[in-house]
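A favour between colleagues. Tell me how you read the following sequence-structure pair.

===
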Amino acid sequence: MKKFVAVLLCVLMMLSAMIPAAMAEDMVTVSLYIPTLAPYTEEAIQKVQAAINEHLAENYGIQTKLVYIEIGNFEQAANLAMTTPELDITCYFTDGGQLANYVRNGQLIDLTDRFEAAPDEVKSVFTEAELKASSMNGKLYGFVRKYQYGGYETVVMNKDIVEEMGIDAASIDSMDKLGEVLYQVHEAHPEIYTLVPQSSKDMTWIRPYIRSVGLTTFGFLNNADHGELTDTQIKSMFETDSFRDFCAYTNKWYNDGLIMADAISNTREGSDMVTAGAAFATLHNADIDPLEMFYPNTVTGGIIVDPMANCADIGNLQFGISSNSAHPDEAFTLLCALYTDAKLHTLLSFGIEGEHYVLNADGKAEYPEGMTAENEPYGGFTASATYPNYLLNPVRATATVDDYAATVAEWDDSVRVPAAFGFFYDTSDKGDFVAAYKNIEEKYRDVLLTGTVALDDVLPAIQSELTAIGFYDVIADMQAQLDAYLAEQA
């Protein structure tokens, strides 16, 4: 009798394992394409996929296939897959114009009606700005990655010198005040660079002096350091007032010996030089994480340019559904779940608890004992920036805040967007023009931003070259479309 019961229990266990598997075979499988920022082993991917599919079967009646592609090859691979039914949900990057290109080419499904019919739990995830950043012509084509967006301009300074000279770092909230400190440090420490570019020859990443318009690389608006972003007159980068003002500071500082003489050929990171004491300061963009956490022996100044963003900042990474998807309804179900289901998203981005990460006594996520970024097999925990909604994940043990969702929400509320936010300009028939403008920008931008060359000395030549490529005709057309767009928004 005992033997019979044991056999019966064994059979029942086998059947219970087979039933979900059989059910899963009848479910629709939705592919999810994600770029990688860290190494993943195939074994780890399959383990995580199996755990995700168990959760999806129980809660949504669908399955998924995870397709990871190295980020440098992702755009080409995704474009190819979008011509087939193999790809359902894909990540894409808008700062390279992919959203506009995909929409023009009919590669993404219009999600407007599906989103309107979605539960409030889904609709409440996104701010108005986020929805606008993933829309074109009033139609929604994807969901933006939930992340802090935009940034403010500040200065990162060597801590030893700040303390030695009694500098009030927080009071440095303008280029004028920064200049006063730079001259003082230059006199006290002529043996080091006073100010260096943020990275290589790039004086600053944030572009505090302009905002690009409509995801283009050639139309810009003036910025306001601490004022309203109401300017709607499109110009070239070189002709905006804010660019001129910025370059006037750096040119004077360069001529007075404050900026490294070979800035235009620099190959080092500015923060590294500041940390090492080879330089006093570098301009830097920042957001919710304190820069001192990343750069030892440094002190951060005040806010020189307020937090601000444009479409490319807010929606620089999005997820949408391919127009060739054989299962658009199921794909939308999975897409919504990725932004609302904490267990699902944590599985996808961190992996399996106890194997790829653990929760410490405070409930924060960290590597299992003996595991590091170098030997953890599922790379998501190492680099989760390409996942849809990291605010659903447990807070990492290394985080500087206890509640990222609340912190990011507060941060995003402080970020301003220009009046032209949400406007797109079609450049699909202007490939030669865009390339020609890019050549002009690359020729002059960095020598002007580093102060190596004075803007007044080269502006006539720049304007002549802009005229030659038809820049002002394109800008006139772009301006007319922007004015019409703004009139519709009023």
The longest helix spans residues 2-25. Confidence is low (pLDDT under 50) at residues 1-19. The domain at 20-150+312-418 is CATH 3.40.190.10 (D-Maltodextrin-Binding Protein; domain 2). DSSP finds 18 helices and 16 strands in the chain.
